[in-house]
């Protein structure tokens, strides 16, 4: 127990830089004295520190989302509809006059009533449905509707024409010897009078331009067209376009023949000449003219090398051409069932009108303009802003609307490019008054791009219309980008997706820029976007500044608002990096993050510099708290920039911003110190010193203290003070405050447990166990926090990865807490001392008739019960400490029992030897308890030695005394000096020769700083050399380095020198004339190792006479233990030996 209570911190004796936090010198700043010192009452707000640490947790919570670079998955938190975009009626489609509306209505009715061709499966074929839909669109009443219908029906029917594009053919028959053909096409319109008859029972005959036909009615030559001849191919590609007027769309049909050209005369030239003939009457004369020019009746013999061969034909009724036109492959047909043909031909067919009897046509309004107005009207009717999710409308027109537009586009002969341009122009204008889905607009631009190869065919006014729409949409898009955060918030995934599509639309428009003669862009689009973003950033910041921290307010009032503004800027930069940056970089090649960061960082830095300069003379606790929080956010902004590879914070406007914040940070850390104490004191006051729950073994105050300390560590990490010198000062002060708070807490705990009376007779105190666990928990927590308080330091100034001051502080605190743990442990085990002594006494008083197991059983049962309670109440580390303390207590108690029972039987000591081994097994617990090497060390060795010696005879104890002297080593070799001797055995003379040469560095034992040394030489043990007397050298006056060179002879047999423990003992004494001689030191030399004993003596060999240097020492505990054993013996031999040694001990003093 005494040993446990007297443990002191070794680190506190070695480390002078950071003395113990328990024992500060009086008057030292921050000294806590011996009792817990109350925190300063006016530091923040007197109380329990709860409010302060709650505010601190809020500050730390802000930093939790600022670790590392932001992740888009974290930022995109909402899938709600995107914010509504601004609308401007003045930027939409032009409002039509009443006259224009009436003309447009007539145009639409005319388109429906005079439709031609076949309706597709997705189109509305019912004419009444289409007319009724138009009545709804234009809002006409029945009378107006009937009147308009009647007027349109009286109008002249339109003139129809068929546009035919002969694209290519494939897999034609080979008609030439080389395995190929030289194909060409003849095509024309068969009028209604020449339409094929319904086939009867006779063999079907198909019409052919090259074969005579008994058809009635003339076929004008202008209806026949031919393509070029494509030589030596079975897969010809023509890509030739033709236009045929249609007289009767319901009965006329398109006929096409494909021939293999074999004549020297060009059929194309012949047909061209035929087209110059006017007034041909009858099919016979027509084919006669054909035969004269090409000799092509298909019946020539094999010797005729110049006859064209038939490859196939097509007959397509005009009424079967889809109203939207078609592009398809047609399978070639034979002239008759006897013909053999194969292959397909690709045609593009479109039925259009060339003359229209409508008011708009009569006024010269082009089909392009009519379609634009009609599309705008239908779009306004179909897409209504009051409908739900109208902003996600993707242009899904109803069936009647799509059908009417398809009819009008086809009849107006609008190309695919013109239709794409019209839909974009109208939709992009409409979008600015009634928001559409940007995916739909992007699809329209992609349609334009797909047909942009036809851009050269666009008339200038249509190209200008497209350019104007691009300019208007760009202007609209740039206005949205200026208010990016309002219309496309980064937390809204829907809005972010709309932004992505908008940027793609703007980027897509750049594809068309080089093709415009009238350029719609004043500069490069990405430059315009960058300028809009910069302006938007500034406007957003100014709006935020005026809302949160207006400049006209006093500095202290502006501070809180500026903190909110800096937080908002940081969150915005996170959004820029995590969401916006990748979109702008990948789509329009703009480094939006760098642009925004540089701009906002410069603005907030300017505001912070001005405000800190204003507030520095007015520093108060409230101002310091606000400035501290502001600095944390500014530091986060700098770290955000530096965490991106390749970014250097030295180029920022915030570089060096920490300097004006230093006074505020210092003051805030002082507040933190005081509030920490208030919080710890409040936690201990309400602590019941009971475990928090079944899974933990510490109480509530330990959890509170550990949480407070972890908050301090997190705060230091966020602070990350950049100046190394200032960081060292701040970190050192904070670490010292933390250590003092830790010890303050342990002292509060000790006081609380001392004031709580425990149950009478309870050996294991649960409150003490909880206190022990609390201290251990806090020791670990404080150590971890202190290691986390490291600051930037040169590698040479680090020890163990920590700056030297911090390492010293950490080690000192750990030593103090270890001492506290040992103190509480000793207090806990002290309650078991009386019981343990009782059970050990029971063992010592047990009669020899009782078995050893029975004598030890009560002690083991008691220990088992108490250790079960301790195991349930203590954490593993503390349980090990208590086990170690109990083990030491048991060993000391047994030693005391042995000392109280002298000169007893050997069975008594055998029983305690059995007890010792039983306790070793009990505390080891098959590897679950203390390790064997720990159990068998220290006091165990002493006890085991005493037990062994008690079982030895007197002479064996004496021999052990000398063996211990031979084993003894000087702990400090130069402390008591050295003695040089030379020994050998002369076998012929049967004598031992001992030569004392000299001594050096002897201790000064006289007042003059010197000594008068002499050496006593004797042999031992006495029972081995009973007739040998001790001898001594002369006294050398006033020296610490005496030279003797004296020779001594001892007549002894060699067999005695070889016995166990035989040695020569040198005792150096200081001669005093008026008092007892003083002991200076001693040394022993075993006789078994000297020349002549260990090996035969060879003449006068100098090797056997080599001097031996012996280090002088004082007798240690293991030597004195054998002496104590002999003191308890009543035998004459033991008493005489002890008496002689005690005479020598009288001259010995305690270790200097």
UniProtKB/TrEMBL annotation:
PROSITE patterns: C2 (PS50004), MHD1 (PS51258), MHD2 (PS51259). Residues 20-45 are annotated as: Disordered. Gene3D superfamilies: 1.10.357.50, C2 domain. Its main location: cytoplasm. Residues 141-300, 975-1101 form the C2 domain. Pfam families: C2 (PF00168), MUN (PF06292). InterPro entries: C2_dom (IPR000008), C2_domain_sf (IPR035892), MUN_dom (IPR010439), Munc13_1 (IPR014770), Munc13_dom-2 (IPR014772), UNC-13_domain (IPR052095). Keywords: Cytoplasm, Endosome, Exocytosis. Residues 853-961 form the MHD2 domain. Residues 628-749 form the MHD1 domain. The keyword Iron does not apply. It is found in: Cytoplasm; Late endosome; Recycling endosome. Belongs to the unc-13 family. PANTHER family: BAI1-ASSOCIATED PROTEIN 3, UNC-13-4A, ISOFORM B. This is BAI1-associated protein 3 isoform X1. It comes from Vulpes vulpes (Red fox).
């Amino acid at each position: 127990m005494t040993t446990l209570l007297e443990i002191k911190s070794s680190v506190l004796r070695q480390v002078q830089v950071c003395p113990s936090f328990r024992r500060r010198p009086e008057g030292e700043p921050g000294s806590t004295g011996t009792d817990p010192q109350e925190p300063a009452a006016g530091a923040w707000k007197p109380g329990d520190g709860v409010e302060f640490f709650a505010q601190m947790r809020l500050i730390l919570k802000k930093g939790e989302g600022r670790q590392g670079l932001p992740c888009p998955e974290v930022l995109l938190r909402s899938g709600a509809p995107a914010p509504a975009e601004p609308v401007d009626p003045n930027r939409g489609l032009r409002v039509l006059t009443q006259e224009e509306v009436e003309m447009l209505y007539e145009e639409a009715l005319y388109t429906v009533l005079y439709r031609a061709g076949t309706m597709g499966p997705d189109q509305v074929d019912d004419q009444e449905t289409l007319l009724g839909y138009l009545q709804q669109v234009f809002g006409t009443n029945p009378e107006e509707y009937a009147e308009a219908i009647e007027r349109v029906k009286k109008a002249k029917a339109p003139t129809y024409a068929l546009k035919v594009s002969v694209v290519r053919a494939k897999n034609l028959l080979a008609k030439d010897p080389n395995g190929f053909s030289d194909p060409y096409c003849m095509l024309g319109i068969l009028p209604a009078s020449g339409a094929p008859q319904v086939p009867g029972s006779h063999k079907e005959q198909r019409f052919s331009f090259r074969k005579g036909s008994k058809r009635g009615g003339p076929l004008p030559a202008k209806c026949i067209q031919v393509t070029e001849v494509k030589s030596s191919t079975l897969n010809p590609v023509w890509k030739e376009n033709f236009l045929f007027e249609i007289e009767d769309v319901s009965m006329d049909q398109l006929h096409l023949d494909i021939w293999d050209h074999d004549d020297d005369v060009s059929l194309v030239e012949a047909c061209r000449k035929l087209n110059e003939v006017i007034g041909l009457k009858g099919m016979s004369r027509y084919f006669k003219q054909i035969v004269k020019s090409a000799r092509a009746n298909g019946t020539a013999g094999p010797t005729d090398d110049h006859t064209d061969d038939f490859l196939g034909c097509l007959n397509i009724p005009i009424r079967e051409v889809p109203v939207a036109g078609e592009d398809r492959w047609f399978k070639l047909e034979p002239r008759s069932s006897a013909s053999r043909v194969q292959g397909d031909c690709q045609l593009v067919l479109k039925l259009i009108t060339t003359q229209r009897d409508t008011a708009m046509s009569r006024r010269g309004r082009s089909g392009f303009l009519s379609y634009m107005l009609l599309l705008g009207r239908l779009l306004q009717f179909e897409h209504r802003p009051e409908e739900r999710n109208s902003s996600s409308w993707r242009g899904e027109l109803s069936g009647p609307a799509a059908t009417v537009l398809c009819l009008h586009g086809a009849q107006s002969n609008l190309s695919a490019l013109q239709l794409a341009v019209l839909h974009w122009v109208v939709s992009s204008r409409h979008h600015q008054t009634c928001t559409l889905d940007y995916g739909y607009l992007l699809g329209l631009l992609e349609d334009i791009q797909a047909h942009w190869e036809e851009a050269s065919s666009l008339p200038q006014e249509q190209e200008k219309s497209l350019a104007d729409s691009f300019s208007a949409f760009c202007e609209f898009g740039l206005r949205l980008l200026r208010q990016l955060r309002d219309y496309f918030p980064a937390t809204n995934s829907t809005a972010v997706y709309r932004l992505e599509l908008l940027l793609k639309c703007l980027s897509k428009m750049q594809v068309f820029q080089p093709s415009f003669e009238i350029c719609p862009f004043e500069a490069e689009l990405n430059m315009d976007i960058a300028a809009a973003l910069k302006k938007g950033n500034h406007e957003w910041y100014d709006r935020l500044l005026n809302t949160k921290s207006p400049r006209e307010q006093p500095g202290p009032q502006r501070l809180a608002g500026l903190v909110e503004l800096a937080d908002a800027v940081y969150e915005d930069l996170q959004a820029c990096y995590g969401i916006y940056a990748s979109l702008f970089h990948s789509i329009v090649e703009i480094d939006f993050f760098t642009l925004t960061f540089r701009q906002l960082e410069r603005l907030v830095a300017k505001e912070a510099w001005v405000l800190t300069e204003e507030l520095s003379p007015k520093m108060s606790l409230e101002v310091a708290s606000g400035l501290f929080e502001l600095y944390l956010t500014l530091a986060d902004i700098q770290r955000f920039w530096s965490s991106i590879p390749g970014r250097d914070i030295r180029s920022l406007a915030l570089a060096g911003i920490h300097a004006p914040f230093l006074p505020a940070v210092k003051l805030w850390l002082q507040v933190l110190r005081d509030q920490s104490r208030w919080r710890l004191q409040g936690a201990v006051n309400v602590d019941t010193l009971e475990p928090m729950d079944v899974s933990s073994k510490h109480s509530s105050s330990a959890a509170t203290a550990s949480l407070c300390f972890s908050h301090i560590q997190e705060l230091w990490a966020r602070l990350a003070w950049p100046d190394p010198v200032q960081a060292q000062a701040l970190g050192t002060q904070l670490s010292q405050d933390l250590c003092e708070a830790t010890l303050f807490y342990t002292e509060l705990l000790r006081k609380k447990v001392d004031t709580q009376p425990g149950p009478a007779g309870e050996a294991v105190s649960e409150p003490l166990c909880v206190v022990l666990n609390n201290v251990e928990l806090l020791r670990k927590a404080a150590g971890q926090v202190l290691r986390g308080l490291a600051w930037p330091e040169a590698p040479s100034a680090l020890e163990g990865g920590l700056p030297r001051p911090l390492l010293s502080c950490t080690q000192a605190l750990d030593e103090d807490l270890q001492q506290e743990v040992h103190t509480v442990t000793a207090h806990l085990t002290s309650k078991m001392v009386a019981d343990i002594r009782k059970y050990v006494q029971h063992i010592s008083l047990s009669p020899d008739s009782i078995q050893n197991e029975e004598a030890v059983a009560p002690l083991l049962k008691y220990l088992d019960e108490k250790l079960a309670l301790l195991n349930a109440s203590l954490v593993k580390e503390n349980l090990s400490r208590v086990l170690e303390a109990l083990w030491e207590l048991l060993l000391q108690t047994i030693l005391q029992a042995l000392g109280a029972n002298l000169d007893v039987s050997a069975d008594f000591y055998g029983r305690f030897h059995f007890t010792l081994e039983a306790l070793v097994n009990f505390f080891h617990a098959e590897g679950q308890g203390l390790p064997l090497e720990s159990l068998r060390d220290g006091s165990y060795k002493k006890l085991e030695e005493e037990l062994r010696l008690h079982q030895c005879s007197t002479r064996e104890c004496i021999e052990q005394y000398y063996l211990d002297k031979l084993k003894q080593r000087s702990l400090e070799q130069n402390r008591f000096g050295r003695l040089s001797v030379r020994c050998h055995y002369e076998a012929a003379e049967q004598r031992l020769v001992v030569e004392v040469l000299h001594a050096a560095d002897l201790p000064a034992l006289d007042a003059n700083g010197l000594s008068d040394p002499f050496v006593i030489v004797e042999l031992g043990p006495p029972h081995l050399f009973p007739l040998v007397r001790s001898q001594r050298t002369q006294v050398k006056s006033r020296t610490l380095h005496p030279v003797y060179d004296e020779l001594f002879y001892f007549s002894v047999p060699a067999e005695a020198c070889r016995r166990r423990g035989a040695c020569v003992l040198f005792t150096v004494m200081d001669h005093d004339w008026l008092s007892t001689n003083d002991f200076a030191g001693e040394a022993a030399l075993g006789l078994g190792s000297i020349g002549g004993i260990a090996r035969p003596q060879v003449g006068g060999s100098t090797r056997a006479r080599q001097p031996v240097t012996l280090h002088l020492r004082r007798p240690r505990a293991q030597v004195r233990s054998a002496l104590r054993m002999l003191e308890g013996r009543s035998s004459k031999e033991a008493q005489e030996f002890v008496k002689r040694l005690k005479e020598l001990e009288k001259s010995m003093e305690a270790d200097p």
